[in-house]
Amino acid sequence: MKIAVGGIMHESNSFSVRPTTLESFRESSLLEGEAIRAVWGPAHHEVGGFLAGAQTHGFEAVPTLMAWATPSGMVQKRALDALTGRWIDLLAGGRGLDGLLLALHGAMVLEGHEDGDAEILRRLRRSLGRDFPIVCTLDFHANVSEDMVALSNALVIYRTNPHTDQRERGLQAAELIARLVRGEIRPRQALAKPPMIFPILHQNTSKPPLIGVMDEARAREKDSRILVANVAIGFPYADVPELGPAAVVVTQGDAELAQREADRLSEALWALRDRLGTNLPDAAGAVRLALESDRRPVVLVEMGDNIGGGSPGDSTFILAELLRQKAEHAVVVLYDPEAVQTCLRAGVRQEVEIRVGGKTDRLHGEPVMVRGRVHCLHEGRYEETEVRHGGKRFNDQGVTAVVECPGQNLVALTSLREPPFSLQQLVSLGIAPERQHVLVVKAAIAYRAAYEPIAGRIIEVDTPGATTPNPARLDYCRIRRPMFPLDAIREA
Ligand SMILES: [Zn+2]
Question: In CATH, what class is 2-275?
Answer without folding.
Answer: alpha beta
